[in-house]
Design brief:
Length: 85
C-alpha cells in the first residue's frame, strides 16, 4: 500500500489536463469582473510577477490554496487570453 504525503496548506489543481489556461468561475467583486482560472505551471510564474492587486491565489472551501489556480482581475485575464490563446 502506497502512502501519500499530505501537503500542508495547498492541494493540487483539480485538473492536470489544462493546456494553457481555462476559466473555472467568474464573479463581480466590488463591481469589477474577476475570473477564477486554472493555468499551466509556466503561466503561474508570470502571474506571480504581476501586481498583487490584480490577482489572488485561489482558496477552496476548506481554506487551502489550490496549485495553479488563481482569482484574477479582468484586465489580467485579458492579457493571459491574448498572450496564451
Amino acid at each position: 500500500m502506497r502512502i501519500h504525503k499530505k501537503l500542508k496548506g495547498s492541494i493540487p489543481a483539480h485538473s492536470n489536463g489544462v493546456t494553457n489556461f481555462k476559466i473555472v468561475d467568474q464573479a463581480l467583486v466590488d463591481g469589477n469582473p474577476w475570473f477564477t482560472v486554472q493555468v499551466h505551471p509556466d503561466i503561474r510564474s508570470w502571474i506571480y510577477s504581476q501586481p498583487e492587486a490584480m490577482w489572488q491565489q485561489h482558496i477552496d472551501s476548506n481554506w487551502y490554496t489550490v496549485a495553479n489556480t488563481f482569482d484574477v482581475h479582468e484586465k489580467l485575464y485579458m492579457i493571459i487570453a491574448l498572450r496564451w490563446s
